[in-house]
Amino acid sequence: MDIIKVFANNVKKYRTEIGLSQEAFAEKAGLHRTYISAIEREKRSIALDNVQKIADALEIETYLLFVEVK
User: Fold this and answer.
1) 26, 35, 43, 65: least CB-packed within 10 angstroms?
2) How far apart, in Å, are the Cα atoms of 70 and each of 14, 52, 57?
3) pLDDT for 24-55, tens place per residue?
């Protein structure tokens, strides 16, 4: 399992499910839009505090960002 790919795919999946653009989501999470874009494109690693910010903004349990959906 490629954890960066799983995380990136899950961030994008949950973000689009709630109908937020990268810009709106970044604002809600307190992060920069280009940072969210880089995460979704698998170009950035991410600090644990930012993982929590993303999960909180998505209103999901943090572990769901690391569960591979087949």
Assistant:
1) 43
2) 15, 24, 24
3) 999 999 999 999 999 999 999 899 999 999 99
Q: Where are the domains of the chain?
A: 3-60
Alpha carbon distances (Å) from 19 to 26, 36, 56, 58, 67: 13, 15, 16, 11, 21
Q: How far apart are alpha carbons 26 and 35 in whole angstroms? A: 8
- Whether 69 has a pLDDT exceeding 90, the answer reads no
Distance separating alpha carbons of residues 36 and 1, to the nearest angstrom: 21
Q: Answer whether residue 70 shows pLDDT above 90.
A: no
DSSP symbols for 22-60: HHHHHHHHTS-HHHHHHHHTT-----HHHHHHHHHHHTS
